[in-house]
C-alpha cells in the first residue's frame, strides 16, 4: 500500500464522495435491479465482517444453529466475557496500541514534514538522491531489517521496550511514506510565499511551522490516518521487538492468547469485534479523508 | 551591521529546521540503511545467537540456498500466490468499481463498506476466516445444512486446499483496496468519451475495452504493484490462518526468513535469504512498474 505515494499529487483531489458525477449512459439494466445486485454482491463480499458483527451479539446456541441470522436474541454477554478476562487482553492491548500509535505518529508528522520542507528547498540532484534512498524504504520487506533492528535496539538497551518499538517505527518505512506525501504537497507551494516570509525576517523553522504546516493540512491528515492504521495493525515488529513478556499490542495480544486454546464462537467473535471496532469506527468517521488520501496518490 | 545580524538570525533559525531534518534522516539511516547493510554483512557469516562471535564464510549461505528445497518451495508458493492474488484482486477491483460507480447515496454507502477488509488488521482477518474455514467451521456448517456437500471440506487441512484458501483470503483483503483505487480512476474519465462513443454506435462491451480499461491504466500500475509487494511481504494473515502449514504448504518466503532467524537461530542464513527476497521484490516492483507505465496513455 505504501508505494501508492511514489507519484504524489500536486494537490489533493476531492475523490469519491465529492467527486465528479459518474458518466450518464442509457441504462440497460433498470436502476433498482442494479442496486439490488450491487447490494447482494457487496454483502457477500463483506460477509466475514458481517458474521463477526452479528455473532458478537448472539448467544452461542443461535450462532451454531444459524451463523448468518441477525441477532434475534441480542446479548452483550460475549462482549462482557471478553472484557472480564483475567489477563485483561483487550484493555491492555488497546491501551498499548494507543500509546504506540500516538507516540509514533506524533513523532513522524513533525519529523516527516520538516524533513520534506528542508529537502524540497534543496538542489534537485541532492533531492533526487535522498528521495531515491527513501523510496527504497517503501519496498524493503520488514523481515529484511527485523533482525538487525533488534540487534541495534539491544546495543542501545532498548530491546523489549515500547520506546524501542516507537523509534523503529519512526525511522522505518513509515517515514518514507510521510516524506513522499509531504514532498508532493510542498512542491506545489509557490516559492514566493517562502521568499516573502524570509524577507519579513522569518527563519526556516518559523516558516515551516507557521506557514507551511497550515498549507499542507490535507497531507498531514493523509499521513496521520494511514500511519495510524498501519502502525495499529502492525504485527511483525511488536511481536519480535517487544517479545512475549513485555505486554502486548492488540494484534500480538490476540495472536498469543486467542491462538493458545479453544474458545467458543461467542467468545471469539466478541473479542474480534472489540479488537476491530476502533480502527473501523475511525475509518467510518474519517472516510472522506481516508479515501481522498488513498486516491490522491494513485490518480495523479 | 544590520545585514550581518539578519544573516546570523537566518542561520540560527535554519539550524532548528536543519536539526529536525537531520534527526529524521539519522533515524532512517539507523533503522533502514544500517540494518540492510548489517543483513548483507551477516549473510556472508555463520552468525547465530548461540555462539559469541561469527566467522566469515564467503558465499556458503548463498550456495546453501541453491540446494534448499524448503526455500524453493516457499519462493514458488510466494510467487504463485502473488500472481494469482494480484490477478484476482485486480479483476474483482475493476468489476466492483464499475458496479459501484454511481453517485447515489446507496452506492456511496456500498463503497464505504467495500473498503472494510483493508481496515481490519491481518490478525483479525486471519482469526475470522479461520473460524469460517476450519473443518467444523461456519462454512462447512452452512454447506452441510444446505446439503451442498456430503462430507465437510477440509479447507485448511490439506496442502492444496490450504494454498487455495490462503489465496482467497489474501485476495479478499486486497480487493477492498483495488476497488477504491479503480473507482477513483473511473471518476476521472470524462463522461464525454462515453457519450461520443455511444453516438458512434459503440456497444457497452466495446466502451469497457476501448475506454474504461485503457483509461484506468495508471490505477492498474499502482494497484498491481502494490498487490505484488503486499504479497511478497505478507506475514500476519498466513501466520494466523495456517502458520504456514499443513506440511509447510502455505509457508511464504517472508515467513521462512522469520522461522530461520527466530526458531532455527540461523541468523547468517536467514540474512542471506532476506537479501534474496529483497532482490526479488526490487526486481519485480521495478520491472512491473516500468512495464505497466509504458502501457499508460495520456488524455
Overview in brief:
Chain A has helices at 31-45, 47-56, 60-65, 77-83, 89-120, 124-139, 142-155, 162-171, 173-187, 191-199, 204-215, 217-233, 236-242, 250-258, 265-285, 287-298.
Fold and architecture overview:
- The complex is a heterodimer of chains A (300) and B (299).
- By secondary structure, chain A is mainly alpha-helical.
- Chain A has one domain: MetI-like fold (Orthogonal Bundle), CATH 1.10.3720.10.
- Chain A is built from 16 helices and no strands.
- Chain A has helices at 31-45, 47-56, 60-65, 77-83, 89-120, 124-139, 142-155, 162-171, 173-187, 191-199, 204-215, 217-233, 236-242, 250-258, 265-285, 287-298.
- The radius of gyration of chain A is 23 Å and the shape is globular.
- Chain B is mostly helical.
- Chain B has a single domain, classed as MetI-like (MetI-like fold, Orthogonal Bundle), CATH 1.10.3720.10.
- In chain B, helix 8 (159-187) runs antiparallel to helix 11 (217-233) and helix 13 runs antiparallel to helix 14.
- The interface between A and B is large, with 108 and 108 residues.
- Chain B: It holds the Pfam family BPD_transp_1.
- Chain B: One of its GO terms (biological process) is transmembrane transport.
- Chain B: InterPro entries: ABC_transporter_permease, MetI-like, MetI-like_sf.
What are the salient characteristics of this protein?
heterodimer; A: 300 residues; mainly alpha; MetI-like fold; globular; disordered N terminus; B: 299 residues; 14 helices; 0% strand; MetI-like (chain B)
